[in-house]
Design brief:
Blueprint (H helix, E strand, L loop, with lengths): L12 E5 L2 E5 L6 E5 L3 E6 L9 E8 L13 E8 L4 H7 L13 E6 L8 H15 L6 E4 L5 H16 L3 E7 L1 H12 L10 E6 L5 H5 L5 H10 L1 E4 L3 E5 L4 E4 L4 E4 L11 E5 L2 E5 H9 L2 H4 L5 H10 L10 E10 L6 E5 L4 E2 L1 E5 L21 E6 L4 H9 L14 E5 L1 E6 L8 E4 L2 E4 L5 E6 L6 E4 L3
Parallel strand pairs: 7-8, 7-9, 9-10, 10-27
Antiparallel strand pairs: 1-2, 2-3, 4-5, 5-6, 11-27, 12-15, 12-26, 13-14, 13-25, 16-20, 16-24, 17-18, 17-19, 17-23, 20-21, 21-22, 23-26, 24-25
Helix pairs in contact: 3-4, 7-9
């Protein structure tokens, strides 16, 4: 990293007092107190003067909260200059060189998903990420704001994939929810071109659930910034979901339909959708689909609980639906390379889900045995149960994943699974692939398998 030019007149004198860095200027009597948990990094300043000086980058909160895990609209990145710092802070926060994915060797893209979650992505970029990149000397980043639900997919085809094909290093910083990552995953894995260099993706979570970010420990903006500095590229595990030929995406809050593949008339065409988070059917897929309306989305993450209540206890007094299908699990055979196929002994279901992550929300631990990016596909299932029992089972996921210890729940590692649907009404043939809803035709099927290829890396910081 080149020399950091300090433009702040007059350096602070800083002392470590408990969990705070107390800073003051003797001449002006200006003072500031920085919570240690809010420090993002320490950078060496210009060496033009006789003494070494440092710049401390930290998050300033105007909401009155000192909790580093709290995200509000009034957080911004601030810099102060100081002549000396405690060695304990320097050893933990000082960065003299940038990692390769933030260096001049990489083409850096910033994608701002304006419609993610509560719409905070743009302010997070302006108040936090943009000054952060500027202080690091990264002033030539390409910044893209989404204009529609197709923007990130279009960027993948027009910019990201061509760079990967020609061997250009690139870092894509996503200010989005899981949807931004999913769009890139699906575009890359559906491309017929070969990739030479996998892009590095950095997450600044701004969505509702942020399953991938929460599963690798990114719970707030400061963690996203620190991971960009500390993290290393890790392979993103992916699954491939194949569908019977006439399956379609459900769009426009349930009113529209769109083909999975460009040519729906080709019966033999392999209709695949790729994901990195979750593939589900039953009540999980139904509540994701039903909650994807303006009426529900205004409730944020609580919309899932509200939709679940209506599905479990319909307001018209009808009984909770039992989902009918034949489900076959693919498992590794001991001492062999081939797989063992095993049909479940029940054809009525309520909750059917396979996931590559541990959390679907910050507090919702769907798969407690999953380690970050370990590549294991884990299956969670329970059959028809009374509404109160189903709610109890799902609520245990908010208790650190205790649901997997319940007798009614099947929880195991698999290589894949297949669902042959036995439902007449399309409402009960909707599946969820990383938040996208697909309607399978009557008598149709879905098959999910782990994907062996590695086309994308995620910047992550864990042992």
């Amino acid at each position: 990293m080149g020399a950091f030019t300090d433009t702040v007149p007059g350096a602070f004198i800083c002392k470590l007092l408990g969990d705070y860095l107390q800073c003051n200027k003797e001449q002006s009597q200006e003072e500031t107190s920085i919570a240690i948990n809010d420090i993002v990094c320490i950078l060496p300043s210009s060496m033009e003067r006789q003494e070494t000086t440092y710049s401390v980058l930290y998050l300033e909160r105007h909401g009155g909260s000192s909790d580093a895990n709290t995200v509000d609209d009034r957080v911004r990145l601030v810099r102060i200059s100081t002549g000396s710092l405690p060695s304990t802070l320097l050893s933990q926060y000082l960065y003299k060189e940038l990692p390769r994915h933030l260096s001049s060797l990489s083409r850096i893209h910033v994608v701002i998903s304006t419609g993610s979650g509560a719409g905070k992505a743009k302010s997070l970029y302006q108040d936090v990420l943009q000054p952060f990149l500027s202080y690091l000397g990264l002033t030539t980043c390409e910044v893209h704001e989404t204009q529609s639900s197709q923007t990130i997919t279009e960027l993948a085809h027009s910019k990201f994939i061509p760079c990967a094909q020609t061997g250009i290093d690139q870092t894509i910083i996503l200010l989005s929810g899981d949807g931004g990552l999913v769009d890139i995953v699906d575009a890359f894995y559906n491309s017929s071109e070969s990739m030479i260099v996998p892009p590095c993706i950095g997450l600044m979570p701004t969505g509702t659930g942020n399953a991938m970010a929460n599963s690798i420990g990114l719970h707030c903006p400061i963690m996203g910034l620190m991971t960009l500095l500390r993290g290393k590229p890790r392979r993103i595990p992916v699954f491939a979901a194949s569908f019977s030929p006439r399956s379609q995406y459900i769009t426009e809050e349930g009113r529209g339909r769109a083909p999975i593949c460009s040519d729906q008339t080709v019966e033999t065409e392999d209709h695949k959708v790729y994901g990195a988070v979750v593939a589900s059917w039953g009540i999980h897929a139904a509540l994701v689909a039903d909650s994807d309306t303006l009426a529900y989305r205004k409730f944020g993450v609580d919309r899932f609980k509200l939709a679940a209540k209506e599905l479990l206890c319909p307001s018209d007094g009808s009984p909770t639906h039992s989902y009918h299908a034949i489900i076959t699990l693919a498992k590794k055979s001991k001492g062999a390379d081939n797989q063992q196929m095993e049909a479940m002994d029940q054809n009525e279901h309520m909750y059917v889900l396979a996931t590559l992550v541990s959390r679907l929300e910050k507090g919702f631990v769907i798969s407690p045995d999953t380690s970050p990016l370990d590549g294991c596909l884990r299956f969670v299932h329970f059959g028809p149960t009374p509404p109160d029992v189903a709610m109890q089972l799902m609520s245990k996921a908010y208790q650190g994943g205790l649901h997997v210890h319940e007798k009614a729940v099947t929880y195991k590692e698999i290589e894949g699974f297949r669902i042959d649907f036995r439902e007449e009404d399309e409402r009960w043939r909707r599946v969820c692939i990383d938040g996208k809803i697909i309607a399978v035709e009557r008598g149709g099927w879905m098959e999910v398998r782990r994907e062996p290829r590695c086309l994308l890396n995620l910047i992550a910081d864990f042992p």
